[in-house]
Design goal:
Largest sheet: 8 strands, mixed
CATH superfamily of the largest domain: Metal-dependent hydrolases
Radius of gyration: 21 Å
Shape: globular
Distance between the termini: 24 Å
CATH topology of the largest domain: TIM Barrel
Number of strands: 17
Order of helices and strands: HEEEEEEHHEHEEHEHEHEHEHHEHHHEEE
Oligomer: single chain
Length: 415
């Protein structure tokens, strides 16, 4: 057998029944229950007590979690050092992305929504078993207005890409007006986007915009949602400014990413429409930690980061208290890949119980991504993604990152 064929074979689901025996199961509540999980042919065959299989894995003293989700990552971004990016050979970015995917999977994240950067080739490489990584929904690029969060124009007059160098298969991100918006969404669908991402406000890590300013008009966003819906795609919005958040909700966008400047009206709108919130609380910490490691982060970005942090936490706390549906996302790439589960600790700090935080990275995340029929719970018939962690994660989520012992994806132990 050729080496490539052997590599791909390692990631094919086994036909034999394997029972993960003697552990406790997280089922979305604040209580763990004793139980075994039997997997066969990539699916969960049974969940219960005293189950048998052709082989057994002893999980005594461990907790079985569904495969975890991160609903906002940038697997093609290794760090926020834009100067390093400009001096990196283009193809090296893909090799770095392979490592980013590997450590993400090792953290227990078996499914991600990539919020710009990963393309169809990266997704396909994982699907074909050429490289290990989480399954992906990809957005490819983020649509932005001129002068918006995705515009890489600098005051020297040059366009200097901070994170994404244009190349074939990645449509141009800058779009103005309904007609351009319609065409660009269609181009993204053609390029393989599973979800459409748009910036309805300014942001922190961009040179000439303000996270307090809303971007795009409702007419542009309505066309975006119309075209995405016609192609059976959801839309996610980088939305930090209050008006950008409300515009996204009004026009039917499925999820608010970041949600820094939420107000009471925006929260009420989210509750009425069932809009999801993906907080990415660890991202601002990632910016400041990058600076402390000596990465040359421009001062304007540091200033904006410091400006938003307190408001960000207060907004998420208010949304949690009100009962908004919250799904876990980290903005990894801004913070280091593989540290995804830090986000859960910060969510608890904003008022979520440990069980609610775990639900945000399992069942709620699966619902956001339209995968609730396949993933997000340890239930008969669902795909056999299982994370085995030592001890009781509900007792102290701060220990979860160091407690991951096994990761199963589609019935194969990949970590």
């Amino acid at each position: 057998m050729a080496a490539g064929a052997r590599s791909r074979a390692r990631y094919r689901p086994a036909m034999a029944r394997t029972v993960l025996r003697g552990g406790r199961i997280f089922d979305g509540t604040d209580q763990l229950r004793d139980g075994d999980v039997v997997v066969e042919d990539g699916r969960i065959l049974e969940v219960g007590l005293g189950l048998d299989g052709d082989s057994a894995v002893d999980c005594t003293g461990h907790t079985l979690l569904p495969g975890l989700f991160d609903c906002h990552v940038h697997l093609a971004v290794t760090d926020i050092n834009s100067l390093r990016r400009q001096q990196t050979p283009f193809s090296l970015n893909f090799y770095e992305a392979i490592e980013n995917m590997r450590v993400t999977l090792a953290a227990g994240i078996t499914t991600v929504r990539d919020a710009a950067g990963a393309d169809l080739g990266m997704k396909t490489a994982v699907e074909q078993g050429l490289v290990p990584g989480p399954r992906m929904q990809i957005s490819i690029t983020m649509l932005s207005q001129t002068g918006g969060h995705g515009d890489d124009w600098q005051v020297c007059g040059a366009h200097v890409p901070a994170f994404y160098v244009p190349y074939p298969g990645v449509p141009e991100p800058i779009v103005d007006g309904p007609d351009e918006m319609r065409r660009r969404v269609r181009e993204l669908v053609r390029a393989g986007a599973d979800v459409i991402k748009v910036a309805t406000s300014g942001g922190v890590l961009s040179p000439r915009d303000d996270p307090r300013h809303g971007h795009f008009r409702d007419a542009e966003l309505a066309v975006l949602v119309e075209e995405a819906t016609a192609a059976d795609r959801f839309v996610m919005a980088h939305a930090q400014a209050t008006e950008g958040i409300k515009a996204a909700i009004r026009t039917g966008i499925r999820s608010i990413e970041h949600g820094i400047y939420l107000d009471d009206e925006a929260i009420e709108m989210m509750l009425e429409r069932g809009t999801f919130l993906v907080p990415t609380l660890v991202a601002p910490l990632g910016v400041l930690e990058a600076r402390d490691r000596g990465i040359p982060v421009p001062q304007v970005m540091i200033d904006k980061t410091v400006m938003v942090m307190e408001t960000h936490a207060a907004s998420i706390r208010a949304a949690v208290d009100a009962g908004v549906k919250v799904a876990m996302g980290t903005d990894s790439g801004v913070a280091p890949h593989g540290q995804n589960l830090r986000e859960l600790e910060l969510m608890v700090g904003c008022g979520m119980t440990p069980a609610q935080a775990l639900a945000s990275t399992t069942a709620t995340a699966a619902e956001l991504m339209g995968l609730e029929g396949e993933l997000g719970a340890l239930e008969k018939g669902k795909r056999a993604d299982v994370v085995v962690v030592e001890g009781d994660p509900l007792a102290d989520l701060s220990e979860l990152r160091a407690s991951v012992r096994q990761v199963w994806k589609d019935g194969i132990r990949v970590v």
